[in-house]
Write a structure and sequence with these properties.
One of its GO terms (cellular component) is endoplasmic reticulum membrane. The chain is α/β, with parallel strands linked by helices. Helix content is about 55%, strand content about 10%.
Length: about 325
């Protein structure tokens, strides 16, 4: 078989595969969140609290999980006041997501209250500073919260969600960040956990294909949440962050905007949920992973942009190197 014939057959098969992929799943995974039960870890503040409010506004029921009982009580009061809803639409559970037994109990209690339709693994934190300056306690806390604290709730819920999915669509939403596609300078352990969450989401997307369970991966940039306060504390690296990660606290996204985007994506059954501004489009094009874009237009856009964006990474790396070396010289004068 000559090269042209082989190329033609390969192109034909690729075209058939593309048409097959994009012809599937056009209808929403979930028509609405009305009367749906959404469980949110890290639900007492930030994006988690904003998502809880949005779920209630859309007619759903919500369980919020957090380490602090006091924070949970305050969050429930805020939700009731902001949404003007009855408290019986809100269930709260105090549990540390890094404690497998505690979070499993919280998940089972939530399911006993109402069968879970959407599980959102949102809990996360960071500790700034170079790796050598991190304490072992900070490393364990970051891994325990961001990675184990994502695995444990899903592990506890999976058998229940699979059973639920026989008659109702179910969604699992993983919170990574743009740091799951490109490093978050000065936050190496955080970066490692978010890369791992991305891998977990991609693996489960395929593992759960036999079930009516959609898997979504959320990759926000900088958002005006308590986590951003930790970034602001890292005075040592803030100037480099402005160059490498385009950090500017003034442009941090509102948690409510992220919450709306996440819930709309979950209802559609979208896999990758990221903002389509420059960092989001750039990183999802060069580092989205194996799972292709879910619309033909987005697929071809990423195909067209991939090579120029790859060229930009070469130029950007030179800028990053310059900023990092200048920062190092200033520190060591």
């Amino acid at each position: 078989m000559n090269f042209l014939a082989l190329s033609g057959i390969t192109g034909l098969l690729a075209g058939i595969s593309l048409l097959h992929w994009f012809s599937k799943g056009k209808s929403p995974h979930m028509k609405s969140l009305e009367n749906k039960h959404v469980v949110i870890t890290g639900g007492s503040s930030g994006i988690g609290l904003a998502m809880a409010e949005e779920v209630l506004l859309q007619g759903g029921f919500v369980t919020i999980i957090s380490r602090s009982s006091a924070n949970l009580q305050g969050a429930v009061e805020r939700l009731v006041q902001n949404v003007s809803c009855h408290p019986d639409r809100i269930f709260s559970q105090a549990a540390d997501v890094s404690n497998s037994q505690a979070i499993a109990q919280a998940i089972h209690e939530a399911f006993r209250w109402k069968p879970i339709d959407v599980l959102i693994c949102n809990a996360g934190l960071t500790r700034g500073g170079s790796l050598e300056n991190q304490t072992v306690e900070d490393i364990d806390l970051t891994i325990g919260t961001n990675l184990n604290g994502t695995i444990y709730p899903v592990h506890a819920a999976l058998s229940l969600l699979k059973h639920r999915s026989k008659e109702h669509p179910v969604s699992i939403v993983f919170f990574a960040s743009l740091a799951s596609m490109f490093i978050f300078y000065g936050h190496s352990v955080y970066t490692a956990t978010k890369y791992a969450v991305k891998g977990l989401a991609e693996a489960l997307k395929f593992e759960l294909m036999p079930y009516n369970i959609a898997v979504s991966l959320v990759c926000p940039g900088f958002v005006a949440t308590p986590l951003l306060n930790e970034v602001e504390k890292d005075d040592d690296n803030i100037e480099v962050l402005k160059v490498v990660n385009l950090y500017d606290h003034k442009t941090a996204e509102n948690p409510r905007d992220v919450a709306k985007r996440v819930l709309e994506g979950a209802k559609k059954g979208s896999y990758l949920i990221a903002k389509t501004n420059y960092p989001g489009l750039f990183l999802s094009t060069v580092a989205r992973g194996f799972v292709p874009a879910e619309s033909l237009g987005r697929f071809w856009l990423e195909m067209i942009l991939y090579f120029p964006f790859r060229a930009i990474t070469v130029l950007a790396q030179n800028d990053y190197r310059k900023a990092i070396l200048e920062h190092f010289k200033r520190k060591n004068k």
